[in-house]
């Protein structure tokens, strides 16, 4: 299940056992337009806008990697 964090639910949040390691937030989308690079950027911005990093920060994680990924068939584009 998606865990609530900030103002909504991120698709994937990876919380490291060792708080000195990086935590990861991934927002996944399916392509709706021909500009999947722009859609990947929007997915990344959703992470920022909805403050999905709140859960990681509450768990003491300082290094947070945010990645927006858009899938178009077998092709994927990431923005980070």
TrEMBL record:
InterPro entries: PDDEXK_9. It comes from the Bacteria. Pfam families: PDDEXK_9. This is PD-(D/E)XK nuclease domain-containing protein. It comes from Candidatus Fusobacterium pullicola.
